[in-house]
Every structure is written in C-alpha cells, then in structure tokens.
Amino acid sequence: MIPGGVRVVKVAVIGSGLAGLTSAYLLSTTVDDTRTRFEVHLFEKDSVELRVDVPMRSFQGGYYPFLLALYTHLGVAFRTANFSYSFSNLHPTSSTDNSLSLQPWFLYNGRSALGGISVPSRRRARAPIQSQMNYCVVMLQFLSITLPFLFLFALSALLYLFNFIRLAILSCPIFYSKDSTETFGDWALRTTPRGPLTRWTKADIAWLEFIRSIVRPLFSALCTAAEEDIYQHPAPEILEYIWRTHFTNHYVVTNGVRDAIARLVGPLEPQNIHLSSTITSICDDPRNPGTAKIIFEESSHSSEVPSTRSISGFDHIVFATQANSASRILGAYRSTLPPKSLRRRVVDAQMECLNTFKYVPNTVINHTDDRFIPSHPSDQRDLNLASAASPVSQYFPRSVKSNSSADLSCVPPSCTMATHIVYKSDTHRMGETHRSSWTGIYQTTNPIIPPHKSTILSIARLERAVLTPRSKLAQRSLMIEEYESLFHWSGCSVHLPILGIKFNVRDWPFFFSRKRRRRLGRLQGVGKLHAQNEDDTAQSRGRSEAVFGGGDDATTFSGIWFCGSYAHPGIPLLEACVTSALNVVENGIFRAEGVNGRIDWLP
User: What is the domain class of 7-79+258-359+468-478+521-593 according to CATH?
Assistant: First the structure.
C-alpha cells in the first residue's frame, strides 16, 4: 500500500518485443480502478537500436485485426503497401566463386491479386526484326517463335489460375478441422486431384508443382523457415492465413517500428526500464511471502564488468521472450525450489511445454549487392523470392568457405531467400539493363550465399518460432481459442471426388462463427489462477491433477505468465504477440487482482 490507500501490484515484464511492450502498456494505462496501481518493470538484455527495421515489419489486414486496432489506438501511422513479388530460381554461374544468377520465372504484380501477372524478360520472344527483313521471314518468326510462346504462357497462366482458385476454395474453413494436426505436406497430397481425367490432363502434377513452386516459397519467406519446416507445418494454420487474407491489403508503418516502440514505452516510468539487463535467476522473496525476487546483471558503458542487482516484491512475472529463453530462466528458478514442492512440479510442467516449441535461426542482411534482385528492371518487384535450383555443393565452393567470414550468415539452400528493395535510386532509365546506372539498398532474409563484403551494411541474427504438430498441442496449455457458432448441428460428411476434397459439416461452426473467445491455458498464472485454468478434456484434467494436485496452496506464490508469437494459436507472427499479451493481461492478471480494464479499442 502507498499513501492514500492505493494498492500497488508489482509486475515484471521480461522481454521488450511487441508482446512485452504491449503487456507493459496495457498494465500501465488500462486499469479502471483508482484503488489499484500497477508498477511495471521492463527487462531487456539488449540496448542496440537498428537503423533499418529487421526483419521487415509488414502485416496484412485480414490476419492482423488486433495489431491494426492497437496501432490505430496508439496513433501509429501506417500505409497501404500491396507488395509485388518475383519468383526466381537461383543458379550458380561459376564453380570457383560465389557468383549467382537469378532467373525469374513468375512475376506477380500485387494489388491484392488485381495487378495480375507478367511475363519475365528472359521468356519473351527476341526475334531480331529489322526493316530490311522480308515480310514472309517476319511472319515465319512470329508463327514459329512468338505465337507458340504466347500460347504456352496463356496455358500456364490458366493452370496457375485454376490452382489458385482451387486453393482459395480449399482454404475455406468448412473443408478442414481447426484442431487437426495434419501437416501441410500431407494435406497437399491428400487434396491432389484424382481420377482418369486429372491423370490425362496432368492436373495432379500441376497441383503439386503449384504447391512446390508458389505456395511453399511464399510461406517459407513468411515464416522464414526451410522447405521441410513448411511441409511439416500444421495445415489448418496455413489454410486459415490464406482464407483470411484473400483480397486484403498489406500495410507497413510509415515512420518505422521505432515510432510504435516509443508510443508503447511512453507510459512507463523511466527508472523501471532496465536495458542491458540479463536475468540470471528468479527466487522467492523471503521478506514478502507470495512474491518473487529477480536477480540480473546490468551492463554499462562506464564499466566492462556488469554489476549484479536484484529487485524484490514481484506479484507477477510475464515472460515475453522466446519460449527457449523463458525455459532457461525458469530452470534457474526451479533450482531454488524444494524437490517435492508443488511449485517445482508446476515449473517442470511449464518447462516441458516451452521446450516443445521449435526455433530456427534466421539471418537478415542489409546490403547494396544488386545480384540479389533480377538483373532486368522489368523483372524487379518489391519482394524478390529465390529458391535454390542446384546441388548444395555448387553454392558453397571451397574458396568461399575458407575465405569469407560472412558465410557464417548463410542458411541452408532449402530456405527461400527473400530480398526486399528498401530503397532504389531514381537515376536509372526505364528499360536500361546496365546495373551501373542505378544503386539501391536491399534487405535479404535468409541469404543462401553472402553478399560481397564491401556491400554489407549490417547483419542481424535472430530466431523465429516455427509451428509443428507437437507444439500446436502444447499451445493449448497456454491459450485456448474457441468459436461461438451461429448454428448448431450434429454434422455429416460430404465427399466431392471431382475436386478431390472431403469435408465434415460438423466443422462448419468455425466458418459460421460469430466471434472468437480466448481463454488462458492451464499453465498460465498457476500461482494466481489455479481454479480458472483447468482444461476441459479428461486427459488434461488428469495431467492437471498430477501437476497441481496435493501439497502447497497454489495461490501462495507469484503468478507466472507467458506471451509471445508462439503462445497464440496460428502462425507465429506479430498478431499473436498482441493477442497473447491481451489475453494474459485482461483474462489473467486483471482477473487475478480483481480489477477491471478499460480496453475499448478491441476490434
């Protein structure tokens, strides 16, 4: 208590990503109770500001309603940026150096599919028509070169259009179960057209090629993961993303990510923002039963040796870090607990859940090496995707392996290399093919080979969560998403062999849903919300009894909460950071403390 009878609730937020900043902002600004005040401490191990947003922070309207609502509430300016794409195959041009060649084969002009597609420059007919040429020769060249090319391009465009429409239909939620753990690779095989007609027309081969050459690179770039990770990704999450983003706009923040960060950090007390602070341990606070003490090392520019500090009295600890980082910190906390105590069993269950989530290393390089975009200006797009088309050994010659430190920034060729044109000079002439006439700044995510050393501006290394069938099941221990349906029925199965699809009408409530309802999983805030977080299934109830049953009272220690891109159903993206933070604060901490929040900007 502080003078005036106001109760102070002390909360530690570990991590200053979007999830951590959103949690801290909500705790500091949305409490609708004059008798309670939240004292929020933000811990971040780093203190470096980046000049260029890494990675590129773009979001799409249909899949990011809470992020858009938060930015609108904060006054963060964002603009429409309906990106165009180029799809290229990456070929080495030499076996003795790291030279490469991008060969575009598909050009998408953006505008939410309204821009159509274009013919790559290398596939256009280049008949040398001259004024002296005979009319018959010109017609012969047209009939033998140009006309067949136009026919083949039109045919391939129709095939891709057919498969695009088919994918759009199959992504409708009535054709799959939201709770399914079927992988995307298995789903692609299961939905391959069957029958004599499809085999005769090669529609089955065209479908699998469409998945391999278009859908897989797109989601490899979106999830910044390798091809095998996309094929092992649960299919419902990918299909839901496709369904919810049909004909919606892409957005980017106008003034960069730092503008959003400044607005989120604004309400926090400056003395409670702990930068360059690495948490080494968490333990119970002996002077304040039911609270926790955080021990951390704080670095400073004035001293090479970090100083050890501790802050006591935390009622709640919000882990807004990666799952693997949270597990490491909990491991230090676990070592301070009695072997057979309830709290140790709870922490064991939380660590087991967190260790289920898979992370893959990512590299983002800002550079000026124009080899990473198509050479012809008419083939260049906002986002230029490139997939390896040759054996791995050709991309990493011996001379490059042993001579360039930047090679440590490369990823396996099974990833899709995505290069975003951040800035391009206006000095080049339209249609000019000589690279020396213009310059640009590019951001390449997951480079398969490194840019030239002299062109590198900055290198950032990070890890991204990738959903797997196993981690999808673990998500239910952190957050559960339910749908309130407009209709109720027992359901029946419908099979359409011509389209090669089968669906259950019992899954239609997901399609005809009025709204989503989110609640906390059973491992959230165990020290504060034990009774609330029991799952409904018999298996979960049995496991809850094994973890929580017997021993100490579950309400006698500080609440531990988890939020982040991994802690929300769906693809781990920025939207999950906001929704998981909202869920923890609104349905967790506020409810545990018996206060109401005035979050009136929700979509």
Answer: alpha beta
